[in-house]
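Please check this today:
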Amino acid sequence: MTSELQSGNGVMGKGLPWLWAIGLGSGLLVSSILGAAFSLAAWAAPIAQSTEQEGAIANESAEFFVTRAYNRLQNRDFAGAVADFSQAIELHPPNQPLNAAGVSLAQLHYGRGNAHWNLRSGEAALADYSEALRLDPTLTKALVNRGVVRRSQGDAAGAIADYTAAIALKPDDPDSYYNRGNAYRDRQNWTAALADYSQTIELDPNYLNAYINRGAVYRQQGQADRALADFDKALARDPQSAEALFNRGVLRFDQGDRVGAAADLDRVVELRPDRANGWVKRGLLRHIAGDRRAAMADYDTAIKVDPNIAEAYNLRGLAWFQLGDITAALTDLDQAIALDPLYANAYVNRGMVHHRQKQFAAAIADYSAALRVNVDYAEAHNARGLAKEALKDWAGAIEDYAAALRLQPNYVNALLNRARTYEAKGARSAARADLRAAEALYRQRNDTAGLAQLRELRRSLGF
């Protein structure tokens, strides 16, 4: 879902609303990593021992490297774990199912894959999980974890195939359903995602993240009551869950409950000051409430926590623009796009800055870039239409307004903009038709401010 914020007094150019694309997102989706999907099995439980005790095991012993690898993995020394798993793999006796520590070669590759994943070495993790499965096709944990890696690489279909294979081997495993639900959600298969999250909860009624992610899908579908119920259920199980508070705060924001949203997001940044998203969303809430300086303080904190968070740069760029600092606005928007070249909202916002500077060709280039990322971005079509209109490209402007209206038939701003362009082109009957359609929408919404704006536009056009 998208939230838009009007800049300044909400008007620009010829008195038409100028909407900023800021994007509230769809809530936080929690992925199992070194927990539900990446839990270590009981094949070789870590044994705490001192350096002196380690020395009691021969340095060339597979048992030594296996034991230390699992200890290092548990203690989050992932580079050390990779090294020790590699030694254990090298020393594994040929043609033997288990080594001296009672661990199979498939399990060693699985363990090293976990360590690689935690080092953000996706390709290496993928290779180890695939090798583990070649050696033991029934190793369901390797299927689940390979699915997580594939999903992180954008291969939702491959991830779904792995999770489905894991379910076939172990149909009572909630992790497989949960992770498959995440992959279905990536593909916007909401029905399948909901079914998998619900099955996860059926198998494990205390599976916190399944409630959170099912609630996020309900929110995406506009089922606010069900979403709120799931977030509340998650918080009943863990009142300190920053993820559940975050998602409930975003939902309350959607519903106009600014007080409730603020309470939840305040709690998020208190519980998890290391989570940049919490600072960004609280900043957005403050931004929309008109407290730009407080919003910018939150965006600054988000960037300190995570210098690579594009959304914070996008929103701070918007705040700088509203405060009149064009140079700072463009610097932040440029950085947002450098960090995420597929960030459609940032292209639209930078295009609007160019537009305000009357750099219409540059604005059109940015709107076009946004549309290459998201062909269904109605606001980008409307904004590009305004820039073309400024260049007196009437046909091009009308084409963009029409595209916006195909995507959002009740998009009043596009109707008003097209009416003005039709009038400039001399097509007064078409302009009247668009104005009538806009009036009907305003009356349906009981929008008195919109009707007043419409009357002003009609007067300016001589109708």
Observations:
- The two ends are 37 Å apart (CA to CA).
- Residues 428-445 form the longest helix (18 residues).
- Strands lie at 4-12, 16-21.
- Residues 236 and 389 are 54 Å apart (CA to CA).
